Amino acid sequence: MKIFLVPTDFSAHAKKALLFALDLALKTNARILVTHVYARPKALLGAPTDHEEEVRKQAVQRMQVFLEEVTSDAFVSVPLDFILKEGDIIHRLGQLIEQNNVSLVIMGTQGAHNQMEKFLGTNTESLAKRGLCPVIAVPEQASLEPVKHIVYSSSMEHDEVSAMNQLLQLKNVFKALLTILHVNSEDQLDLLDDAEIKANLRLQFPEEEFRFDTIEEEDVAAGITAYVMTHPTQLLAFTMLHRDFWERIFLDSVTVKLLQSLHLPMLVLPENGKKLDLLQGVAHEDLALEQKVTSVL
């Protein structure tokens, strides 16, 4: 069974991420693993072991309250477990992804130190760069609406067959429109012919419905923003490791602010990492909400 990993710090944006995950899991017969990673507590004079146990118990209580606030009867058939881990959040999430063969990470975002972090969120950016699996970032101010339109921002400088394989799964799960958007600017390298890329995608996916749109705009982020504002969109996607394309964008804080203003869930696809797999498996039984705790390492 597919597993979606949902990290939480029990915040409002973490709740939105879990709601998004529950809806997607319901549509794809997936299991959800909610995880909270906390720092090792400083030892108190006299009883460090007791203090660490108290911190763990408090985390369990907060997790139970968090799940009760988010879950509802609509998602009762979605198998859900939770796990607590102590340590560095990115290291622990990486372990959980590999140990549990996680298909997708869905996490809320808040906080920033550099331009990419301002766009994706500190931990989301760090995890996405590792390329272990696709990541959906749900911004704090995102409005969770039914996904009817997915926009994939492409530089048209790379073969997009792998990305399309993944995007079409999401499109079909949500029964949404899929647009491959190219913002054409003088900054583009034009390594490949756009027409050839489009023709190849049509050839590779002859039975699938999707569309291409190209707009002229020197500021790529401004172009994406303008397009999404005029074409209602519920999910924006891009491939993270096309660094020559995306890192040029994030050199300018103004462009980051433009993208931030969209308040959209964003799908980050790793170029060379695990591919998104949402294909329907064996339907799971209707199970009551499970709340399990794995011992802290």
Describe this structure in words.
With 297 residues, this protein is α/β, with parallel strands linked by helices. It folds into two domains: 1-139 and 272-297, Rossmann fold (3-Layer(aba) Sandwich), CATH 3.40.50; 145-264, HUPs (Rossmann fold), CATH 3.40.50. Helix content is 39%, strand content 20%. It has ten helices and ten strands. The chain has helices spanning 12-28, 48-70, 89-99, 115-120, 122-130, 161-174, 194-204, 220-230, 243-249, 253-260; strands at 3-7, 31-38, 80-86, 104-109, 135-139, 149-153, 177-184, 211-216, 235-239, 266-269. A ten-stranded mixed beta sheet has the order 3-2-1-4-5-10-9-6-7-8, with helices on both faces. α6 links the parallel β6 and β7 (177-184). It starts with a strand and ends in a 28-residue tail after the last strand. InterPro entries: Universal_stress_UspA, UspA. It comes from Rufibacter radiotolerans.
Structural class: alpha/beta
Average pLDDT value?
Answer: 79
How do the helices and strands follow one another from N- to C-terminus? EHEHEHEHHEEHEHEHEHHE
Distance from N terminus to C terminus (CA atoms, Å) equals: 25 Å
Low-pLDDT regions: 111-121, 249-255, 281-297
Helix content: 25-40%
Overall 3D geometry? Answer: elongated
Q: Tally of extended strands?
A: 10
Count every helix, treating DSSP H or I runs of 4 or more residues as helices: 10
Topology of this structure?
Elements (H helix, E strand, L loop, with lengths): L2 E5 L4 H17 L2 E8 L9 H23 L9 E7 L2 H11 L4 E6 L5 H6 L1 H9 L4 E5 L9 E5 L7 H14 L2 E8 L9 H11 L6 E6 L3 H11 L4 E5 L3 H7 L3 H8 L5 E4 L28
Pfam family, one: Usp
Organism: Rufibacter radiotolerans
Protein name: UspA domain-containing protein
